[in-house]
Design goal:
This protein has 2 helices and 7 strands, in the order αβββββαββ. By secondary structure, it is mainly β.
Length: 102
């Protein structure tokens, strides 16, 4: 599965564009289908050689309340869960404020 489509690349908020927003929108969600990790993508920018840097909230069994931070697309593409499954994009995700993401 392609994690980023051309449409997502065009419409994803740029890094720091929601920095002053109290409850930023989360337009994109990635997850491991065979584990408990979820990346709620808030913003992103393309870096060199087609890689992307995302600002996101990561939620997992290790940190159920979640933690804000950065992740690169190339890192997400390398991750495999315990059964060897790659990270997927939630095809049914609808953008919502971060406070509404569970």
């Amino acid at each position: 599965m392609k994690l980023l489509t051309e449409e997502i690349k065009r419409t994803l908020p740029k890094l720091y564009s929601q920095e002053e927003v109290t409850d930023p929108m989360v337009p994109l969600k990635f997850f491991t289908p065979d584990s408990s990790f979820t990346w709620l993508i808030i913003e992103g920018d393309e870096e060199s050689e087609g890689d992307w840097l995302f600002f996101c909230k990561v939620v997992s069994h290790l940190c159920p309340e979640g933690e804000l931070g950065y992740v690169r697309l190339s890192d997400l593409e390398e991750i495999r869960g315990p059964l060897g499954l790659p990270v997927e994009r939630d095809l049914y995700w609808e953008a919502k404020p971060l406070s509404k993401c569970k």
